[in-house]
Amino acid sequence: MRGWANYYSTGISKETFSELTMKMYLKLKSWAQRRHPDKTGQWIAKKHWQTIGGDNWVFATKQAGKSPLRLLKHDETPIIRYVKVKGNASPYDGNLVYWSSRMGKNPEVPKNVATLLKQQKGKCAHCGLYFTEE
Questions:
Q1: At what angle do helices 96-103 and 111-119 cross, to 10 degrees?
Q2: Residue 67 to residue 48: CA distance in whole angstroms
């Protein structure tokens, strides 16, 4: 589920993720009722669902002394928008700062510098100004 949600996180998929979370809940509820046919809904809910960090109805395991293992909800996956390349930008135009901050790698820039440029989005963490090639 995590891989599928991460793969589609670059598109406009918030509504789809919310719908899938609801469908997953209904499937799990149906499974739990089939698994425990003689138990009440309240007993089933206490056994399989928990409140974790203010989030109710989390399907998770109960482990003594450990944090519970929980099932990922699709709508918890952050949506990452794709940023278009500037109109006339090219990897061969020599703008190392732009391409390093965009991709996090550039053959002409050291790996640690390119990674920092990407993390900081091309800006200085102290003064907030954009880096130049100098």
A1: 70
A2: 15
Question: Can you state the angle between helices 14-35 and 41-48, rounded to 10 degrees?
Answer: 120
pTM: 0.62
Both 44 and 70 in one domain: the answer is yes
Beta partners for 49? 59
Q: Categorize the per-residue pLDDT at 96 as very low, low, confident or very high, splitting at 50, 70 and 90.
A: low
C-beta separation of 120 from 84 below 8 A: no
Distances (CA, A) of 72 to 10, 59, 126: 18, 9, 36
Tokens 């790996």: give the residue. Answer: 111
In this structure, the answer to whether residues 93 and 125 fall within a common structural domain is: yes
